[in-house]
Amino acid sequence: MAKDTSKRHYDIVKEHGGRTYTGMAVGGHHDWDYKDGRWSETKVSPDKWTFTFDCDKHRTRHAPAGSGAAVGTRYHWYIVADQRVAKLDEDTYHTSMSGIKFKVGYRRPHWRAWSYEYPGRGVCYEDIAIAFLKGVIEELEARKRARGLGAFLPGIGTIAASR
After folding, report:
1. Pairing of strands 92-107, 151-153
2. Torsion on CA atoms 61, 64, 66, 72, rounded to nearest 10
3. Higher pLDDT pick, 127 / 161
């Protein structure tokens, strides 16, 4: 019986920030277990979620002797990805993700701060991430132009591509 109630609640039209939507209510939360990892997400608007993912990753082959960074080195990456999922059963989804990652900074074992935090660099984490995201936007816009697609703006509709 609870499943029917939950399903009906999912399909109820809801409102948030002047927008109507269906699905999980804003503020809802999911935890997903991956092999050796946990993905936690919270719905913050009808189409936006925040998430965290924590796991240990392991090489498929052993690293060559003497290669790579010293043990204890840390890296800070900014990731933009497409995640596509297909519901397989009540509790299981198949997940495929592809994207790009950009090194924001690093921290050697004996350093007190990240590479972008040292004085004299003239940049901060946000500057690096913004520059990366602007590049991603430019790539997406160029891909759309190459396909002859116009812009779509919510509430306005399609705008013809300029040629």
Report:
1. unpaired
2. -20
3. 127
